[in-house]
Write a structure and sequence with these properties.
The protein has 12 helices and 12 strands. It is an alpha/beta fold. Helix 11 crosses helix 12. The chain binds adenosine-5'-triphosphate.
Length: 356
């Protein structure tokens, strides 16, 4: 028996996590699922969005499943799960399932991962007044020679690219590509930066990544600037394997890539640190459809499959993914975002039946 902590978060996150947990239990998987207080409710009852007892349970759990963040109380949960645990590797699989509502003419065979560096780059935001920056760094010039003071009133944001942060995400990318290679994928890293413009920061990221990738002679490697990468993800998604992105680029490109494979309703993710992992859908709390029971639970079910795999329940993970694939292939119980009329629970019922 393994223990899972399930935290719905906010909006549709609550609905899709609840439905997914019911599915996991009905499937008879060897899981004990705990749902400790968190977010706004915990703020009201315990005076904190992530009470100590919830943190303790997360620390002891074999797996953590999160729904979606929206307002400050659920963002505080993400802050705990992601930033405070140094979960630096955000794995976002982009896979087309036959029957999903892709806008692409030929989505068949799309199967890659956007690997987003999760801890630095432009996030978490470190911003300030231009006047303070001008005082602190009077010699700072942009590439055309303008000093900071010449911009007048305004703000700035700082992009951080550390050697340690870049080396560890590059290593993670290579290990992931090797693992995928054993599953029949090509074993290729596509590095995404804007090093032609941000020569010192993005250029450093690219240089460090290339140093690490050179230690993995079995892997293929390519680098694209982010604008070119965006275009290629639409035009040639089948050529991608592990797409290693700096934080902001990964944030944007993973939504773009997910849409190509059928939309946010389908896109799962996992965030990994050295001794930590949690799993969540890529989508947010979707306030426009929250409370209606019509959200697509696929992203959360597939996130749960990633979690099961990580917990050592590979067979259960594969069965769950195969069941989802079957529901899409049959096409009779798809949710509205996929052109169907099924509710969240009807989709889960179909997935349970597909599990056999
Ligand atoms: P937030 O601010 O919490 O991120 P948002 O609405 O800005 O919320 P998303 O929650 O990611 O961003 O949603 C973007 C769009 O995709 C919305 O129109 C939403 O209804 C739709 N969407 C997202 N997830 C799902 C889902 N699981 N099922 C159906 N539609 C979804």
């Amino acid at each position: 028996m393994k223990t899972v902590v399930a935290l719905g978060g906010e909006g549709i996150g609550v609905e899709v996590v609840e439905a997914t947990c019911e599915l996991l239990v009905a499937a008879g998987f060897p899981l004990r699922i705990l749902t400790p207080p968190h977010g706004e409710a915990a703020q009201a009852t315990d005076g904190s969005p992530v009470p100590d007892q919830t943190k303790r349970l997360c620390g002891q759990a074999d797996g953590i499943l999160f729904g979606a963040a929206g307002g400050p109380a659920s963002v505080a949960v993400i802050t705990y799960l992601r930033w405070q645990q140094d979960a630096y590797a955000n794995v976002r699989p982009i896979k087309y399932y036959e029957g999903a509502a892709s806008p692409l003419t030929n989505p068949h065979g799309i199967d890659f991962v956007v690997l987003r560096e999760n801890m630095e780059g432009l996030y978490p935001a470190r911003e300030g007044d231009l006047a303070d920056l001008a005082r602190a760094m009077p010699e700072l010039r942009d590439r055309i020679g303008r000093g900071v003071a010449e911009y007048g009133e305004g703000r700035f944001a700082v992009k951080v690219v550390s050697r340690r942060g870049t080396e560890r995400i590059a290593r993670f990318a290579c290990e992931l590509a090797l693992k995928r290679r054993t599953q029949g994928r090509p074993g290729k890293i596509t590095c995404v930066t804007k090093s032609n413009v941000l020569r010192d920061s993005d250029g450093f990221f690219q240089e460090v990544v290339e140093g690490i990738v050179a230690q993995y002679p079995d892997l293929a490697y390519e680098h694209f600037h982010v604008d070119d990468a965006a275009r290629r993800l639409v035009r040639f998604p089948q050529t991608m394997d592990v797409v290693l992105c700096m934080n902001l680029y990964g944030d944007i490109l993973s939504d773009l890539a997910a849409e190509g494979a059928g939309g946010l309703g389908i896109a799962p993710s996992g965030c990994f640190g050295d001794r930590w992992a949690y799993f969540e859908s890529v989508h947010g709390s979707a306030p426009d459809i929250a409370g209606h029971g019509i959200a697509n639970p696929t992203a959360t079910i597939l996130s749960a499959a990633m979690m099961l795999d990580h917990m050592g329940l590979a067979d259960e993970a594969q069965r769950l993914e195969a069941a989802v694939a079957l529901v899409y292939r049959e096409g009779r119980h798809l949710t509205r975002d996929q052109g169907g009329a099924a509710t969240t629970r009807e989709f889960c019922k179909a997935a349970l039946e597909a599990l056999g």
